[in-house]
């Protein structure tokens, strides 16, 4: 049995030190399209974009947590945990959630603790929930959960787990924006630590069943959060409380993302599709929880 659920859940967490600096943050922001905002006449020098790209005024988009201090993302590391022995070719990143305990610093050293938080039996697949909790000397910073589908590994009669599917948002979206994906977006994004050749090597992509290399799901995740922050939260990254999504489909570099948002004071529902493929779903069941502006206005000054 390649997945021993009891053994995986009982395993001791793995702990290690991670560190990052402003260059890592800037590289991540460039990898998700900062400085190339469509609709702005000079995006590279626009003050709203310089918040993401200039070290002297740097704000950290919370989704940076998915790459901070990383070689490969927790997804790959989690597959070498006790009780887990699976073929990487059968693995899909099914979803991601992030809880932000306080604003991310532009540089830092912290302790990351990784463990398998849940193992679900979906019949034809197993789902692993890989949890990473990160804290520095001042306390908790963030908690990341990656939901990993392993095809062909279900059927042992285990807990099916909760359904992540939500009712579709009602009514027309409050805002819709489009974000073009550059042809070299995946090549730039992978420099933040996800070296999977699926995102760069055409031969590898074909073997994996794709016509050409695909964009990282976590790159789309970052592009989408930046669009919500810039469009609805006044560019204030410190207002983000949590962010969850399900990866519903692929994106090819060169395509355009259509990001639709349904906004309330405390949360924004988001749906993302690929414009060139009739809005084929890319991110689904997506929610950004955020503070009302008034709660955080003091903090935003610091």
Overview of the molecule:
There is one protein chain. With 302 residues, the chain is of the alpha+beta class. Helices cover 21% and strands 32% of the residues. It has a ten-stranded antiparallel sheet. The N and C termini lie far apart (52 Å). Mean pLDDT is 90; it is low at 294-302.
Output the keywords.
alpha+beta, 302 residues, globular, disordered C terminus, 32% strand, 10 strands
What's this, in brief?
With 302 residues, the chain is α+β, with helices and mostly antiparallel strands.
Main beta-sheet annotation: 10 strands, antiparallel
Strand fraction equals 25-35%
Q: Based on DSSP secondary structure assignment, what is the total number of beta strands?
A: 10
Structural class: alpha+beta
Report the end-to-end length measured between terminal Cα atoms: 52 Å
Major beta sheet, strand line-up: 1-3-4-5-2-7-10-9-8-6
Overall pLDDT level: 90
Indicate the percent of residues in helices. 10-25%
Q: Name the shape in a single word.
A: globular
> What pattern of helices and strands is seen along the backbone?
HEHHHEEEEEHHHEEEEH
By DSSP (H or I, 4+ residues per run), the number of helices equals 8
**Low-confidence residue ranges:** 294-302
Radius of gyration: 19 Å
Which helices and strands occur, and which strands form pairs?
Layout: H1 5-10, E1 14-20, H2 22-31, H3 47-53, H4 74-78, E2 91-100, E3 108-121, E4 125-136, E5 139-151, E6 175-180, H5 185-189, H6 202-207, H7 217-232, E7 240-247, E8 256-263, E9 267-274, E10 280-290, H8 293-300
Antiparallel strand pairs: 1-3, 2-5, 2-7, 3-4, 4-5, 6-8, 7-10, 8-9, 9-10
